[in-house]
């Protein structure tokens, strides 16, 4: 099945139900279909052909959803751009993808105009929010086109989206994702639209991120109303949950922490929430523990995936978040909540391999690799990086170090390039970070390896303290020593006001290593 059929099916079942809710306006599934058809016909009128790349630079909005389905309907390839990327990264992505068309949001017009001389392949610039000299206007295109259904010969294995990785190291890499990459997950894990069941999904993840796209497509097929935020803002999130009676939400750990720490948290009616999915970055145990207490009756799901896998490949289920049973069972569940990413989805195989590519038994620490129909076949126009990312038999090297327990749960140790090796001993930064997070004065913590002439590397902690709290380096080092093997404790501590992060909350350890002398 291709992704346009998800919209077609739901529009036939519940045409008048709100598909998109954005800034006070509601657009039904029927209206979304009509808008997508108008834009698709307008794009065909511009001469855009099947397989051509059409990019967008904009925050979340209803036009973003319309643009994706319009591009998909004509068999073109949608290129969602990270609106936080630097100008040279955007130039790289647009030229590397050979995009011919670029949708531009209001706040990015000046930057795009500065870039135009570096973008020889762009033939059509489309301003989304206002009329601009030298650009087509989104609303004019819509007004001039027919809303007749567009039919294109689209194969399930045709590429529908070219997503670029966050670029935490080097220039972003292009990941071509097929219709099957998304629909296989949706059909397996989402119940189709039902006239008797109405739900609202609050979308905070950016639509240039695979988790945002996954949420959009799941909401479409499931007949869920997608309440969209341009970008996450904690007060607006709380207000939207209350106003729209949102049933589902996905948050990265930093977002969830801001929600549960909000001074007016108890003033909002959040009782409509039934499912909170989290992921995209490690979740500190203290945060998820507090969230479970503050959201009684909510099913929490830890979802782990990558751009290269199109969507989630492992989950910690709601049952894994219920700490009940014998003391041994409670301890096991608590350990899983601390560092496990759960078990693989039914269509995904996963294992741990060593540096030579040999399979490791349960408990063995190595690289996590994944295989399945949703895993990419290679990077866009980059054979060298593809060879590094995939094993000879097609398994994806996730770049994450970890291990598997006897029951098939996978645990993260670190990114492969984040692992600290001290005197031949591997130290997981996350283990040290989790210990630091339990200190009452610590707001955030990141641990990196810095060069040491005797031991090769030593752990360094970069710490953000809670407002009004104090702690010394010696105090935090001793605190860690009491809670883990002595060799794992940080040997130095740096206090900062904030940690550098990607838009999805991942700490940019590369930036920290560059600043504090790591390799």
Structure characterization notes:
- This protein is an alpha/beta fold and 519 residues long.
- It folds into three domains: 3-180, Rossmann fold (3-Layer(aba) Sandwich), CATH 3.40.50.12780; 232-415, ANL, N-terminal domain (Rossmann fold), CATH 3.40.50.12780; 420-516, ANL, C-terminal domain (GMP Synthetase, Chain A, domain 3), CATH 3.30.300.30.
- Helix 7 (179-189) crosses helix 8.
- It is globular and about 70 Å long.
- The mean pLDDT is 92.
CATH homologous superfamily classification of the largest domain: ANL, N-terminal domain
CATH topology descriptor of the largest domain: Rossmann fold
Morphology call: globular
Strand order of the largest sheet: 2-1-11-10-12-13-14-15-16-20-19-18-17
**The level-1 CATH class of the largest domain:** Alpha Beta
Largest sheet: 13 strands, mixed
How large a portion of the residues is in β-strands, by DSSP E?
Answer: 25-35%
Q: Enumerate how many helices there are, as a single number.
A: 16
How do the helices and strands line up, and which of them pair or pack?
Blueprint: H1 3-13, E1 18-22, E2 25-28, H2 29-45, E3 53-57, H3 62-73, E4 77-80, H4 87-97, E5 101-104, H5 109-115, E6 124-127, E7 136-137, H6 138-144, E8 159-164, E9 174-178, H7 179-189, E10 200-203, H8 210-222, E11 225-228, H9 234-244, E12 248-251, H10 253-260, E13 275-279, H11 285-294, E14 299-305, E15 312-316, H12 327-339, E16 340-344, E17 349-353, E18 366-371, H13 383-389, E19 396-404, E20 410-415, E21 420-422, E22 425-427, H14 429-437, E23 442-452, E24 456-465, H15 473-481, E25 492-495, H16 509-516
Parallel strand pairs: 1-11, 3-4, 3-5, 5-6, 6-7, 10-11, 10-12, 12-13, 13-14, 24-25
Antiparallel strand pairs: 1-2, 8-9, 14-15, 15-16, 16-20, 17-18, 18-19, 19-20, 21-22, 23-24
Helix pairs in contact: 1-8, 2-3, 2-6, 7-8, 10-11
């Amino acid at each position: 099945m291709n992704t346009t059929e998800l919209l077609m099916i739901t529009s036939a079942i519940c045409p008048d139900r709100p598909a998109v809710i954005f800034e006070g306006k509601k657009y039904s599934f029927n209206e979304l279909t009509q808008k997508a058809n108008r834009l698709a016909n307008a794009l065909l009128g511009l001469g855009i052909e099947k397989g051509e790349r059409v990019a967008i630079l904009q925050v979340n909005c209803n036009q973003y959803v319309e643009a994706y389905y319009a591009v998909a309907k004509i068999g073109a390839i949608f290129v969602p751009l990270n609106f936080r990327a630097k100008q040279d990264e955007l130039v790289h992505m647009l030229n590397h993808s050979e995009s011919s068309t670029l949708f531009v949001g209001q706040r990015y017009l000046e930057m795009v105009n500065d870039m135009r001389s570096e973008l020889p392949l762009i033939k059509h610039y489309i301003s989304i929010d206002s009329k601009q000299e030298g650009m087509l206007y989104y609303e004019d295109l819509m007004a001039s086109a027919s809303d007749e259904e567009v039919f294109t010969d689209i194969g399930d294995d045709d590429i529908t989206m070219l997503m670029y990785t966050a670029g935490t190291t080097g220039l972003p890499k292009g990941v071509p994702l097929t219709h099957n990459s998304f629909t296989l997950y949706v059909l397996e894990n989402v119940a189709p639209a039902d006239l008797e069941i109405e739900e609202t999904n609050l979308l905070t993840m950016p639509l240039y991120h695979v988790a945002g796209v996954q949420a959009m497509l799941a909401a479409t097929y499931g007949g869920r109303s997608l309440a969209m935020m341009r970008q996450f803002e904690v007060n607006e999130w709380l207000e939207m949950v209350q106003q729209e009676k949102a049933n589902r939400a996905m948050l990265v750990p930093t977002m969830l922490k801001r929600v549960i720490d909000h001074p007016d948290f108890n003033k909002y009616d959040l009782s409509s929430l039934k499912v909170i999915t989290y992921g995209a970055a490690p979740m500190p145990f203290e945060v998820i523990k507090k969230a479970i207490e503050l959201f009684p009756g909510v099913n929490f799901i830890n979802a782990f995936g990558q751009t290269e896998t199109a969507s989630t490949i492992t989950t910690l289920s709601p049952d894994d978040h219920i700490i009940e049973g014998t003391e041994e069972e409670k301890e096991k569940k608590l350990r899983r909540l601390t560092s496990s990413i759960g078990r693989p989805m039914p269509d995904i195989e996963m294992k741990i391999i060593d540096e030579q590519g040999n399979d490791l038994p349960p408990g063995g620490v190595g690289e996590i690799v994944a295989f399945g129909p949703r895993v990419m076949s290679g990077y866009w126009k980059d054979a060298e990086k593809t060879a590094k990312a995939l094993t000879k038999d097609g398994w994806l090297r996730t770049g994450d170090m970890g291990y598997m327990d006897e029951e098939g749960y996978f645990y993260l140790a670190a990114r492969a390039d984040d692992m600290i090796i001290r005197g031949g001993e591997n130290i997981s930064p996350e283990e040290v970070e989790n210990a630091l997070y339990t200190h009452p004065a610590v707001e955030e913590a990141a641990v990196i390896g810095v060069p040491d002439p005797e031991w090769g590397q030593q752990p360094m902690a970069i710490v953000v303290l809670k407002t009004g709290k104090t702690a010394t380096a010696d105090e935090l080092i001793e605190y860690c020593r009491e809670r883990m093997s002595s060799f794992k404790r940080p040997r130095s501590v740096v206090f900062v006001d904030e940690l550098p992060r990607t838009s999805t909350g991942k700490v940019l350890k590369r930036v920290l290593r560059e600043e504090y002398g790591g390799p």
